[in-house]
Amino acid sequence: QVQLVESGGGLVQTGGSLRLSCTASGNIFQIIIMGWYRQAPGKQRELVASITSSGSTNYVDSVKGRFTISRDNAKNTVYLRMNSLEPEDTAVYYCNAGGIRPTVFSSWGQGTQVTVSS
């Protein structure tokens, strides 16, 4: 089992920045990939950015050049740095961790609200 705790959400004006943090505990050595998802009201949850255990990153087109995912292995923490925020980025952001051992798993954090005012 992997447990995830997110922090760092809040209210920011258009053009502002925030950094989200996600700290993992439990069976962390089985994590293969971690990602940040978001869900806006009335919309489906979407993958925003991901980072693999080897450091490969991936971003949804709408955040490329503005968001950066990174990790600190010593702190078991993944970050999402969000710059040039837009009202369209308003959503609940969820951290996710996935792996395949001992069985396939996908763990979620509780979510953190990000609100960008125009």
Termini separation (Å)?
40 Å
Q: What low-confidence regions span 5 or more consecutive residues with pLDDT below 50? A: none
- Strand count, sense and closure of the main sheet? 7 strands, mixed
Look at the structure and give the mean pLDDT: 96
Strand elements, count: 11
Shape: globular
The Cα radius of gyration reads: 14 Å
Structural category is mainly beta
> What is the share of helical residues?
under 10%
Following the backbone from N to C, one meets helices and strands in this order, namely EEEEEEEEEEE
Number of helices: 0
Task: Tell me what portion of residues adopts beta-strand conformation.
Answer: over 45%
Please, could you describe this protein's structure?
0% of the residues lie in helices and 57% in strands. The radius of gyration is 14 Å and the shape is globular. The strands form two sheets. Strands 2, 4, 5, 6, 9, 10 and 11 form a seven-stranded mixed beta sheet that branches. The chain has a four-stranded antiparallel beta sheet with strand order 1-3-8-7, with no helix packed on it. β5 and β6 form a beta hairpin. The chain is mainly β and 118 residues long. The protein contains no helices and eleven strands.
